Amino acid sequence: MSTEPAAGRVRRPTAPGDTRITVAVITRDRSVSLLRTLDALAALPEQPPVIVVDNSRHETTRRTVAGHPAISRLLRPGANTGALGRNLAVRHARTPYVAFSDDDSWWDPGSLTRAADLLDGHPRLGLLAARTLVGDEAVEDPLNAVLAASPLPTEPDLPGRPVLGFLGCACVVRREAFLDVGGYHPLLFFGGEETLLAYDLSAAGWGVAYEPTLRARHHPEGHGRSGRSFLVRRNHVLTTCLRRPWPVALRAGTGLALAAAAGRPGARRALKETVARFPAAVAGRRTLPPRVEHAARLLDRDAAGRPGGDAR
């Protein structure tokens, strides 16, 4: 892996911003979109240092963003690390809090300072999920309503609404908490990887909360990357195998097998890759403590009552 520090780059010639928070951006082969994100981050009053993890194999992204004033460090692993690129960025961060963006998302002015204030004021808080607004029209992401309606009871030492899920490009973590649980799990790579991290943070005693006063902007290009549906299906089953009781995992696996038998798009590939990863999931299996499993069951029941529900 190569790392490129900010030496020689011209930083923004303004007063110091908020020194408590870094933005981590993962990207792969979308340099035009990445430039838009970097421009938006550079304009923030917080002036956060930005660590970019370039999952591309070629030099196009590096050449395109070279010298951009927002970037404090460019990390180039030499291969596609998926969501694990976020782990790499957090390890390189030197601030107590890290906000995540993708190469098509950024933060509203003031949201990062607000997040840092909340994390300062709530020592058990490990992760804040933000409200996500999509496109130039700022349409509400459907997940916002799901998180806001979380059936989990409020906790007096946490802000917002307790949840067990979030959008990976619209959250802020306490660096200590993220590293404490190992960050994103390598078995999942990408696609619905957030739930397992929320489980692990909660199991370790850290709070996970949705706070709609924090706002992230998401501007996906076209239809996004192909194959995400298959990855989400695969990782849902693997997550249950890694952390949930076997009856829950069996139901998830049976659902995927039935979808594959019915010829649903991506289901056969998801089933094949789930089977290939199953031994590793069993080896890494660590069931949730009773209080977190109870919360997960509340969310399961809530999702079952909603068409296409998302148990977060």
Output the number of helix runs.
Answer: 11
Oligomer: single chain
Number of strands: 11
Largest sheet: 11 strands, mixed
Q: Percent helix among the residues?
A: 40-55%
Give the SSE order as H and E letters. Answer: EEHEHEHEEHEEHEEHHEHHHH
Shape: globular
Strand content: 15-25%
Distance between the termini: 35 Å
Q: Assign the structural class, choosing from mainly alpha, mainly beta, alpha/beta, alpha+beta, or little secondary structure.
A: alpha/beta
- What is the alpha-carbon Rg in Å? 19 Å
Query: Which ranges are low-confidence, i.e. pLDDT below 50, for 5 or more consecutive residues?
Result: 5-14
Average pLDDT, all residues: 91
Structural summary, described in words:
The protein has helices at residues 31-42, 60-65, 84-92, 111-121, 142-148, 175-180, 194-203, 228-243, 246-261, 267-283, 290-304, and strands at 2-5, 21-27, 50-54, 71-76, 97-102, 105-107, 125-134, 139-140, 161-162, 171-174, 207-218. By secondary structure, it is α/β, with parallel strands linked by helices. Strands 1, 2, 3, 4, 5, 6, 7, 8, 9, 10 and 11 form an 11-stranded mixed beta sheet that branches. It is globular. Mean pLDDT is 91; it is low at 5-14.
Element layout with pairings:
Elements (H helix, E strand, L loop, with lengths): L1 E4 L15 E7 L3 H12 L7 E5 L5 H6 L5 E6 L7 H9 L4 E6 L2 E3 L3 H11 L3 E10 L4 E2 L1 H7 L12 E2 L8 E4 H6 L13 H10 L3 E12 L9 H16 L2 H16 L5 H17 L6 H15 L8
Parallel strand pairs: 2-3, 2-5, 3-4, 7-11
Antiparallel strand pairs: 1-4, 5-10, 6-11, 7-8, 7-10, 9-11
Give the structure's gist in a few sentences.
The protein is α/β, with parallel strands linked by helices and 312 residues long.
